[in-house]
Design goal:
With 358 residues, the protein is an alpha/beta fold. Helix content is 40%, strand content 24%. Keywords: Isomerase, Magnesium, Metal-binding.
Length: 358
Amino acid sequence: MEGTKIIDVTISPLNIALDAPFTIATGAKYQIENVLITLKLENGIEGFGEAAPLEPVNGENQGTALATLESCKEYLKGKDAADYRQISKHLKSVFWAQVTARCAIEMALIDAFTKTLNIPLYRFLGGAENKIETDYTIDIVSPKTARKNATFLAAKGYRTLKTKVGKSLKDDVARVVAIKEGAPDCKIMLDANQGYKPADAIHFLELLEENGVRPELFEQPVVKYDLKGMKRVKDSTSVPIAADESVFTAADAMAVAEANCADFINIKLMKSGIVEALDIAAIARSANMGLMIGCMLESKLGLGTSVHFAAGLGGFSFIDLDPHIDPTREPFNGGPDFADPFYTLTSAPGIGVTKKLS
């Protein structure tokens, strides 16, 4: 294709303060510490990509992502953005473990390519939907704060609330019950982030049932490699189980499907990259498993890409793409329109994100 060869590559840290500290079973974060890559094509179009490393999940940090992307600069110059699958295959063979850096490159390539085609990314991926509804995550806070937050979010229009669990059975039960009290009409999803042993996960669900709470979904209850343990949890309950950290690759998705240990797969682009995420979605559907989409701590660039992905493919039962950054602190304009709790896709080409003028 004319004009789609890469002529320049720029890489920079992307640090943005969160609205509030975000605590999960593996620790707390106060800001995103990501990396931005910009690819400039011969036709003058720029494509943007974001790496969102989270070391407890994907083994990367900002420093390793920066180093990986810097080492790819010379390789990328002269490559054609239209060949994004070929480039993705090569980078995976060289930087297998550096998935967030690879995802950033894929994102920038596909953003630049779809801008050249003058088509929104979600339409390039199939255009199944142009509006999706997200949940909102309440992290590990006191029951009093959780109840207050739940009431506030329900009043804003959220119909599904998710909370982090996996640190303390007693505290987790109290928080979930408080959320249900604060927002009795909201559906509740749970994410243990690998925090429980199988027996504790089963007991946790039993305690919730005793308190009149039935979650819509229980995400990654046990450590990622314990598929037998996850199946034990799945077989003990009618609550659907989602595999998250257990699935980074298409091969992982096959293993989860063969083990029959989960009802849903949570796709996160920062675990797999965009190209492999398409394969994971296809495997899940072939195995009659449901789809969920989630994210790391990302700016509207990374988050918007996941919105395009879910809307383009369609059929995602659970959307977990809630923003945690005040728009005034974002270094970007554009992207999918957001009005709690809905994302609406626009006609802007590519991801639709532009850099703010500094």
